[in-house]
Amino acid sequence: MFYYLLIVNKNGSLIYDRSLNASLNLSQNETINIASIFYSMHAISAQLTPPGYEKTSDLKLENHGIEILESSSMKLVCHQTLTKIKFIFVTDISTPNSNIKLKFEELYNNYTDLISKNPFYELDMPIRIDAFDEAVSKIFK
User: Fold this and answer.
1) Domain over 2-139 is classified CATH 3.30.450.70
2) Between the CA atoms of 38, 41, 46 and 48, what dihedral angle is there, to the nearest 10 degrees?
3) pLDDT in tens, 31-59
């Protein structure tokens, strides 16, 4: 089960957040805190990655920062694109990684089609495009 989606730009700013479960609603302050803390942890872990590190996760394209944080009841999964946009999913601990990867791929395809190719969208600005909201709803329905 997917609980929350956050999208963070290459500078660490939260550009999109969406509750995917009616039982979990975070305030704007809480989502900004989560995004900024995770961005910092991701950047620090990328700096600490030793040379010659072999990728062990089946989730990523290429990333040397934190990919998965797990607790006893949830996990936070980060997919970083080649353009350094981070898609952060908060899911139930039982959600399979293969399912998360499929959702990311579908979401990323919609992101590139509806956001990146949109001439009215300015890079690194908050995403306020209704078609993308509808696509997210459809993907996580």
Assistant:
1) yes
2) -170
3) 999 899 999 998 888 877 666 555 555 54
